[in-house]
Amino acid sequence: MAESIVMIALSPTMQDGVIAEWIAEEGQAVKPGDALCEVETDKATMPYESPVSGTVLKIVKAAGQTAAVGEIIAVLGKPGEDWAAVIAGATPVAERPAAGPSAGVTSTEASFPALGPIEPTVAAPAAPPLSAPPAAPRASTASAPSSPAGASPSSPAGIPPSSPLARRLARDGSVDLRTLRGSGPHGRVVARDIMAAAGKDTVNADAPKSAAPGGASIGMASRGLRDERVPLSRMRSIIAKRLGDSYSEAPHFFVRAAIDMERLLELRAAVNEGRDKPIGLNAFVMKLTAAALERHPLVNASWEGDAIRYRPAADIGLAVSLDAGLITPVVRACERKGVEDIDAELADMVARARSGALKPEEYADASFTVSNLGQYGVEEFTAIINPPGSAILTLGAVSKEAVVRGDAIVARRTMRVTLSSDHRVIDGAVAAAFVAELKALLEEPALALV
Amino acid sequence: MAVISYREALNRAMDEEMARDPMVVLMGEEVAQYDGAYKVSRGLLGKYGPERVLDTPITELGFTGLGVGAAIAGVRPVVEWMTHNFALLALDQVVNEAAKLRHMSGGGLSVPIVFRGPNGPAEYLSSQHSQGLASYWAHVPGLKVVAPANPADAYGLLKSAIRDDDPVVVLESEMMYGDKGEVPDGEYLVQIGKASVVRSGSGISLVAFGRPVKYALEAAALLEKRGIDAEVVDLRSLRPLDEETVMASVRKTGRAVVVDESWPAASVGAYVAHRIATVCFDALDAPVGFVSSEDVPMPYNHALELAVQPSADKIVAAVLRALYLEE
To answer: According to the model, what pLDDT value does residue A147 have?
Structure first.
């Protein structure tokens, strides 16, 4: 039977996504895991992998169009099947007749709490919270099929199949199932997906011991506990070696700043106006970081034991978390590239990093690194230097803070950054001057033109 | 603790119970002069004499009925079936008489009898003599059914069965009679209706009874090498079924694979899987896996004979599916 493929939340904060490009064409057969299209989210461009086998019968959302989470973007099935009926048959959740045992339905519905404390913090589109009642569909381009009245991003097709245990863990841990891509058969969300979403690194996905009837409920914190010894993956041993060496050999010191982001966010909004593919915030930060490095070349350097090597280009790595660890794709010579090019390179490399297709030369030898945990809502954090670079810059969440301007207190979108520097290479005054320059550039990007 | 064979453990249980209670008798084909077709009754004729250790004609319905009648009259017979394949001839006496009389007499009669013998596939025996018939007995209210998977349980369960005031069917295994294991030196009983966690783990519950418990333990050892920590639950008693122990294990691990050497349809394993899926629904992360014999009469060809039965490899494959590690 033909199945609708709906936009899913590819990041915890994503509420809609732009189809950057279709990789599969109408009439093409795909397997689970094959990339159907590239989706531009608020953070990065990500491949959308097919959850099922079948032939692409109809592409509903063309490249460049925006789809809310839950909206149909394509229909898959056997050649010749009626895709139009699938689209016409999509019904909003409230009108969907109850199916199966009532206990199952109850637990499914109960497992969709509001997102909780982690709110979109960086340039999130103004969209209703997921728990809001169905709203009118967002205006989409004329060629998009009209949805039945009342259809909303929370259409049933947006709810992935899930195991009973996954539903209970999601409910208990306030994880929104709709934000997940299930790793089980037919896209089924299973316990390990919830664990991953809740930040629990897990191999065996142990179930809680709290399920005895009448037993006290135990929070997520205890669910991942287990007595287990997991041999290191290759990636994990490399991370351990590199970061262990870096932290023990390089004397780290930290310089912090709070940065007013209003101007940069306005600039970004202006640049993205009318663009099919909005440019992510990281690309702007990396571009302006490169400008700051040009003005403070002492920061763009490597420790070589008996010498310090000053690097001729701002080769900036961006820390990207993967299921198995993390990786830092490097955009070379950011000082000579525009934000559009930086963004495109990042999108390409991040997507390939997630599919394990990044080449070693693409993630090695950064002269400077940026790490952004803003999407998790953290205010600020410190990072360990990623050799051979001598400094790493961390970005916290962009959030409104009360700021004194003149004699008034105003709410300004603010981002806190921390620079970790290797004191063998970079002295305190050098780091402070660099951070001050970076703050000035991020607060008034026009200075980069001077 | 002495290391003795499963066969010796059964023999010791009967010997001790015959010494303890003069009403305990043993009857069956070749149990006396020949020491039993599988030598389980070795030495008992010499010890207790022909009035308590009786060779019977090759008439399962007849001597099983004789045992039921004697049990009603106060004797505590142990009826040995040469194998459960032949016990099909005696179904009526077990199902319609032994299992029903307490109920139909309003509690006035009891039938303290044990039916025992090897059940399940053996080797090179083809279709009629190599089949798992546990569900024929486990299906019937009024019976108790146990399936020891090691010498200690063979000893402790058979002693409990002989002392029980209701009919108990004991499923032994021809392929395990020579298996050795530690059995406590002093007298001890294994309570009927209690399962045993024979290997503790946190990643998945393997639930089995009888000989497949061995396959489950082999599978758990293979899985350990892959970093998967399997718990193995030996049901030991099929009726009554110790749901408490099974469900506690599944609630802990969130996943289960049931193993049964019978055919899949209407089997004990299928029932256990159904109970897990029902009782532990909210704890499950994957459908309950089920490894049974293939749904065919036992082939004679040895390679095929092995291929249709559960094995450690088949259990490992089912576990990997339940953990979403393989399709």
So the answer is: 37
Q: What φ, ψ does residue A446 adopt, rounded to 5°?
A: -60, -25
Tell me how far apart the alpha carbons of residues B209 and B295 are, in angstroms, rounded to a whole number. 19
pLDDT one-digit tens code per residue, B191-228: 999 999 999 999 999 999 999 999 999 999 999 999 99
Catalytic residues of A: 423
- Alpha-carbon span A36 to A181, nearest angstrom: 14
Residue window 199-218, chain B: list those with CB within 8 Å of chain A: 202-203
**pTM (global) more than 0.80:** no
A103 close contact with B: CB closer than 8 A: yes
The answer to whether the CB of A328 falls within 8 A of the CB of A363 is yes
Among candidate residues B129, B139, B218, B224, the one labeled active-site is: B129
ipTM of the complex: 0.74
B17 catalytic? Reply is: no
CB neighbours of residue B321 within 10 Å: 17
Q: How many CB atoms lie within 10 A of CB A62?
A: 12
Domain segments of chain B as ranges = 2-183, 196-322
Q: Which residues contact A312 (CB under 8 A, 6 or more apart)?
A: none
The pair of structure tokens assigned to A190 is: 């299973």
> Closest chain B residue to A232 measured between Cα atoms?
B227
At A355 the pLDDT is 81
CB–CB contact B286 A192 (8 Å)? no
Query: Across the strands, what pairs with A321?
Result: A326
Cβ neighbours of B252 in A, within 8 Å: 206-207, 209
Catalytic site residue from B8, B17, B29, B60: B60
Query: Tokens 């919830």 correspond to what residue?
Result: A194
Helix B268-279 and helix B243-253, axial crossing angle in degrees, nearest 10: 60
Tell me how far apart the alpha carbons of residues A201 and A183 are, in angstroms, rounded to a whole number: 15
Neighbours of B309 (CB within 10 A): 21
Ramachandran bin of B106, using left for φ above 0, alpha for ψ from -120 to 50, beta for the remaining angles: left
CB contact under 8 A, B229 and A168: no
Domain end, chosen from A126, A159, A192, is at A159
Strand pairing class (B2-5; B180-183): antiparallel
The answer to whether A167 touches A113, Cβ cutoff 8 Å, is no
Could you read off the pLDDT of B88-113 as tens digits, one per residue?
999 999 999 999 999 999 999 999 99
Backbone phi, then psi, for A310, in 5-degree steps? Answer: -90, 135
CATH number at A32 reads 2.40.50.100
How high is the pLDDT of residue A119? 31
Instruction: Identify whether A320 is part of a domain.
Output: yes
Position A245 in a domain:
yes
Instruction: Indicate the CATH number of B2-183 among 3.90.1640.10, 3.20.20.330, 3.40.50.720, 3.40.50.970.
Output: 3.40.50.970
Domain B196-322 sits in CATH at 3.40.50.920
Looking at the structure of chain A, the number of domains it has is 2
Label residue A406 left, alpha or beta by phi (over 0 means left) and psi (-120 to 50 means alpha).
Answer: left
* Chain A neighbors of B223, CB-CB under 8 A: none
* Token reading at A333: 């010579």
Residue B65 pLDDT greater than 60, yes or no: yes
Q: Which tokens sit at A299?
A: 């920061």
| Closest C-alpha to B228, from A221, A233, A168, A231 | A231
Is the CB of residue A107 less than 8 Å away from at least one CB of chain B?
A: yes
Q: How far apart are CA B8 and CA B178, in angstroms?
A: 9
Which residues in chain A have Cβ-Cβ distances shorter than 8 Å to B284?
163-165
Residue range of the domain that includes A146:
3-159
Chain centre to alpha carbon of residue B167? 14
Inter-chain CB pairs, A–B, below 8 Å: 68
H-helix segments, chain B: 6-20, 44-48, 60-72, 84-87, 91-92, 101-104, 134-138, 151-163, 212-225, 243-253, 268-279, 302-307, 312-322
Contact A165 B284 (CB under 8 A): yes
Q: Residue ranges of chain A with pLDDT lower than 50?
A: 91-156, 201-222
pLDDT at A86 (0 to 100): 82
